[in-house]
Amino acid sequence: MNTPAPIRRAIPADATVARWSTPDGWQLRRFDWPGNGRGGILFQAGRGDVFEKYLEAFEHWHRAGWSITAFDWRGQGGSGRLAPDPHVGHADDFAPFIADLKAVWQDWDAPSPRVAMGHSMGAHLVLQALLEGAIEPDAAVLIAPMLGLKSPLGARAGEWLAQLMRRLGDPARAAWKGNERPASRRQRQQLLTSDASRYADEQWWYEQEPAIKLGPPSWSWLVQAFASTRAQRADSRLATLATPILMLVAKKDGLVDPRAALQVARQLPHSEVRRFGGESAHEILRETDVVRDRALAAIDQFLATRVP
């Protein structure tokens, strides 16, 4: 295994990690790293993620002068829990996530241009916030976006099963025992990244602060995710978005549906798509150097062109 880069396992000395209170009093764990005038990037991670997993990407953009802000979504990481079981990622509604993103965006004092970035569930919520007018970035980057869920049964049957299971018991109970999706015979690392060293960084952070680790989603979260992505794919407002959007899509993604992402991209009037093949799993920015460097180069080129 390669020796981890120091930036991946240390909060930068000139960055801050603090509690930030939402309008309804919820305490979000927030990361801020002031830049050198290039602009601001607000980065949102995926379901169950923590912002520490993306410190290496943050360092790349920070070297280019960008200010970086991120926060753990309500209910995960260091931002508290929404279920009695702290291991379960629960949500009765995705609306509070959008409200939190809007509140942080309005409070954010980063210089222009301002860019919204999201990975997986974070990308879905960034796009939803754009559709609702909750944020108004100069550009957006959606990385392995959760615009459709992978299900062993297919999306329609998967949503029906989730609705049934939510009704039959506690909606906040875990939908499965472990891994990133049910009935998967693939190891978790294979689903996320082929880079063993970067994969190990996640566990290292959890060992430093066990309370930030989250497990599987609840049945209620699954119902919300199926419904929200389905509605988003059919949203007529997609065709009216003026924001330039770059989408990075992994063809062999085992967690989210790349076909759904491409379907959405075709509806966006100012979108660009960069596709990755079997060389990339779900976490494109935490893949091997060949994949990661190509992804960062695509983002850099997009930003240089769209928000010079």
Automatic annotation (TrEMBL):
Record has Hydrolase as a keyword: yes
EC number: 3.1.1.5
InterPro entries: AB_hydrolase_fold, Hydrolase_4, MAG_DAG_Lipase
Enzymatic class: hydrolase
GO molecular function terms attached to this record: phosphatidylcholine lysophospholipase activity
Keywords on record: Hydrolase
Tagged with keyword Hydrolase: yes
Domain Serine aminopeptidase S33: 38-289
Protein name, as recorded: Lysophospholipase L2
Gene: pldB
